[in-house]
Write a structure and sequence with these properties.
Layout: H1 2-10, H2 21-29, E1 37-40, H3 43-51, E2 57-62, E3 75-79, H4 84-98, E4 106-111, E5 119-128, E6 132-139, H5 144-147, E7 150-154, H6 159-168, H7 172-175, H8 186-202, E8 206-216, E9 221-223, E10 226-230
Antiparallel strand pairs: 1-4, 2-3, 2-4, 5-6, 5-8, 6-7, 8-9, 8-10
Helix pairs in contact: 1-2, 3-4, 6-8
Bound molecules: adenosine-5'-diphosphate and magnesium ion.
Length: 231
């Protein structure tokens, strides 16, 4: 909590209220697992980060002006180390093509999370003028808006309530191992919902927070993409 307070106060006076690296650190401070990796602002640094990660990496453009990174080709999944350098330059040039005056913070290099036996979910919070902090849980990924398979609660929630949320969505059977798939770590998902609930309860300055996707596999639950707006 102290760590989270430090992170939030470090961005307090910044004009830009959306967080980059800090968002991942904030989740970390509340025990929500994030992929290994870092945000860098030069191709050589990207390579260095990649070399610290086992296997292919994921690379993403980091810009406050680009909200949906994959829409502009700003996410590259499965990049071998030898292609990291070129991938960096390609990501930046795609962002420039999309919006010449975009502020580009750099590129995020991440460990690949195994999606083959994983499910992409979304966990989010929006402050509703009437109800207060509304937590959302549902099926995630880049098609979340089209699917609209979500459920809501007002924060704070207990872990038991969070677990109920995971049972309420249409895709609940998918989490519990439909069609011969192994069940994902549902308890870990519920724990993540509860921890996020605690985070937004402790810090009213967080106006909006979305983890999309929160990837859940049989073994791990990781927040792969997070978007956060502070007061
Ligand atoms: P955006 O939502 O801005 O398009 P994301 O970071 O959510 O960008 O990435 C888009 C998609 O790429 C994710 O929904 C997921 O399918 C895939 N992806 C992103 N990061 C990873 C990762 N570390 N491991 C595996 N797949 C990833
Ligand atoms: Mg996303």
């Amino acid at each position: 909590r102290e760590r989270a307070r430090e992170i939030l106060s470090s961005v307090e006076d910044r004009a830009d209220t959306r967080l980059g690296v800090e968002a991942m650190d904030l989740l970390d401070a509340y025990g929500i697992e994030t992929p290994e990796g870092d945000i860098v602002d030069a191709p050589a640094d990207a390579l260095e980060v990649a070399e610290g990660i086992d296997g292919d990496v994921v690379m993403k453009i980091v810009s406050p002006d680009i909200l949906h990174k994959s829409d502009i080709g700003g996410v590259k999944v499965g990049v071998p180390h030898e292609e990291v350098y070129d991938a960096y330059e390609d990501l930046v040039s795609r962002a420039r093509n999309y919006q010449p005056d975009a502020t580009i913070i750099g590129v995020q290099v991440q460990e690949m999370v195994d999606l083959d036996d994983g499910v992409e979910t979304i966990v989010g919070m929006n402050r509703d003028p009437q109800f207060g902090p509304l937590l959302l849980f549902g099926l995630g990924g880049i098609f979340v808006e089209t699917l609209e398979d979500t459920t809501f609660r007002v924060a704070p929630v207990s872990e038991a309530e969070a677990e109920t949320m995971t049972e309420e969505i249409d895709a609940a059977p998918l989490l519990r191992g439909a069609r011969g798939r192994d069940p994902v770590d549902v308890a870990g998902v519920a724990e993540t919902i509860q921890r996020l609930s605690q985070l937004v309860t402790d810090f009213p300055a967080i106006l909006e927070l979305d983890i999309n996707p929160l990837v859940a596999t049989p073994d791990v639950v990781k927040a792969v993409d997070v978007r956060l707006t502070v007061d």
